[in-house]
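Sanity check record (used in CI):
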Amino acid sequence: MVIGIDARMYGSGFGLARYTQQLIHHLLLQPTGDEFVLFVAKEHQGLAAVIAEHPHVAVRLVVADIPWYSLKEQLLFCYAIKKQHVDLMHFPHWNIPIWYTAPYVVTIHDLIMYHYPRPEATTLGPVKFWCKDMVHRLVVRHAVAAAKHIIVTSEFTKEDVHDTLGVPREKMTVTYQAPFSVAKGHLSAAVVRKKYGIHKPFVMYVGAAYPHKNVDMLVAAWKHYVREYESDLQLVLVGKESYFYTRLFPSIAHDASIIYTGFVPDEELATLYA
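Expected output for Glycosyltransferase subfamily 4-like N-terminal domain-containing protein:
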């Protein structure tokens, strides 16, 4: 069987990227006998080095440098997939071309943005945001309706998809997201902490700063906690710099109890967790 995977989000900088990364890495360890076609963005052609470690697995890389959540994705990605003659496609997210009619499996992580659309999560004006939200709902409903099967990452999401979108429970399989192993780097904990300005016991948040993550509320709660209890702890925010993190900078720039590290490599992150 020829199995295609939308790997355009492959990486380690955010949750969907990590999910796609670990999915591919572990599929390459399975002796399935299938051929895999990985559709990647240009910057992820480094996947070739990972594939080279598994010469027994048939894998093809196809560059599909098509932006997520775009009109090009709806119009061009469908054609790019069809050219590769895959038997089954796996989309690790709901952003599936609505004209794609071949068999596919989709992973639905949650319906947060379906339930709670946030205008502050975009730079679009109110009219454009409304249109974008309507398209999002259309694409999500199509994704689950046309899928041959749906992977969900928790029992809660399974019930939510069933209740909200009317998907039969038997069409969904819960596959929990597992931790993965990574070797700690050669730097000591003291050196890594010094690198990021961490010099006290700390509480750490790792992730994006999208509005639905409520990092701004975390920052406000932290400041209240420090004032109320005269805490000697630090709050460490770890995440790739983005528009939403830069919006937080004015509120944390002059607070010595809050450290923003930016992106932290896995090896150093493992050291901080330890």
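The beta strands are 2-6, 35-40, 58-63, 88-91, 104-108, 149-152, 172-174, 202-206, 234-238, 258-262. If this sentence no longer matches the regenerated tokens, the check is flagged for review.
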